[in-house]
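Hey, resending since the last one bounced:
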Amino acid sequence: MQVRIHDIDHGRVGAPNQLRIVAGHLLVVLINHKYQHDQWISEARQDQLGRGAPPRPASDRGGEIDGYTVIRR
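The structure tokens again:
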């Protein structure tokens, strides 16, 4: 059985409440990882090419850990 995000969101899976929680955490982790990768690339561009990193996004859902922007649940 193939489960899609849409199915989880609409509760069309076994244990829908638990899967919704797991999917939410996985999504936050994936976004944070992708953002960290982009930050590392920006830092390398700054060091090696002299181009500045883009401004940090403004959001009430954001936070900072060890100088890196992350999404909070």
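The radius of gyration is 17 Å.

Sorry for the duplicate.
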